[in-house]
Amino acid sequence: MEIEIRPITERDIPGFREAVDEVARERRWLGAVEGFPLEVTRGFVQGLIEQGAPAFVAVNAQGDVVGWCDIQPRGAEGFRHLAELGMGVRAPWRGRGLGRRLAEAAIARARELGLEKVQLDVYASNLGAIALYERLGFVREGNHARARLLDGAHDDVLTMGLYLTPVREYRIVPYDPAWPAQAAALIDQLRVVLGARAMRIDHIGSTAVPGLAAKDIIDLQVSLPERGPATFAEPEWVAALIAAGFVHRPENTCDHRPPGADGPDSDWEKRFFLTPPTQRRAHIHVRALGRPNQQYALRFRDFLRANPDAAEAYARFKRVLAQHHAHDGEAYVSIKDPVFDILDQLSLRWADELGWQADGEAAAPVRLRKPRYCEG
Hints:
The chain has 376 residues and is an alpha+beta fold. The chain has helices at residues 13-24, 38-51, 98-112, 127-135, 179-194, 235-243, 292-306, 308-324, 329-354, 370-374; strands spanning 4-7, 55-59, 65-73, 82-89, 117-123, 139-150, 153-163, 172-173, 200-204, 214-215, 218-224, 247-248, 271-274, 282-288.
C-alpha cells in the first residue's frame, strides 16, 4: 500500500488530531497521554501553515493520516534559529520506514528555511526512535534522569540535536595510515619557518599512535629552548609563524595541570597555533623543552604506542564521549582531562620500568606488566 508523504493542510487537521491521540494513548512515546481538543489542534496546525514551518503527514490510500513530523521554529528573540521536532507513526504502520521519510522531508524543509539547529526530546526507553534520530545525524546533548514518572515507572528524557549549518564537532574516526606522512610534511614546513628557534618538533597526540581512533586533527609539539620567564617572551618566532599563515590563539596559554603536580604554574605554560585555513587542520602546541607538559605529551604518546590494550580502552572512551558531547567542547575536555590523568599515572609507572627518556621514541616496545595494572 503506497503511503504519500506531503505537507500538512487544513483538511488533514481531524486526521492529524486522531493520529496524535492514538499514539498518545499508548502512554509510551509522547509527552501527553491523549490528544488535544480539535480546536486547539486546529490552531496549532494553522500556525504551522502560516509560518511555512516544516510540517508533513503520511497519508494512506484512504486519506487517513498515519504519521506526522513537524519542526516548529521558536518565536522568542534570540532563539529563532532553533526549532523543536515532534513526530509519531500509528502502530499498524510502524516498521515501514515512514518515520525516516517524514523526518527527512521535514529536515530538508528546515534547511531551506535557514534554520540552524533542530532539537528534540525522546524517552530513553524509546530505543527505536533514538536509533532513527542518530541515523539522521542527531547527537545526544543531555540526559534528564527520572524525568517522567508514569504508571509507577520512571524514564529518562534525552535531549538530542541536529546542526543544519557547519559547527565544530568532536568526531572520532578510525586510524588513518596517512596521518604520519601528513604530520611529517607539517613538521618540515615548521622547520623552515622556525629554523634554529625550535629545538625539536614532534608528532604527538592520538594521530601519532598507530591504529588508534582519533579526531582527524594532527597535533604537533614545537619545543623551544628553556629560558625561564623569557621562553615565550620573544616575539620573533610568533611573528614568523603568523607571517607563514599560522593562526595564533593568544587566549590558549596553559595546559591542564594534573593532580599531584607540585611545580610552578609555568610548568604547564604553552602557546597555541592552528594551521593556515587553506591547509590540513592541525594544532601546534609550543612548549619549553624539558618542562613537565612537554615531557607529558611525549611520554603519553609513547606509552600508548607500546601498550595497545590501553590505547584501545582509550579509543572506546573517546567514541562514547564524542557520541554524547559531539558539539560541547567544554564538556568534552572537562571529562577527558581526568581520564588523561588516570592513564598518565600508568604511563609514569611504565616509563619508570622502561627507563624511558624523551628522545622522540620509546626505547623499546615494552608493555606494562599486567600485575602492575592490578595493584591496589
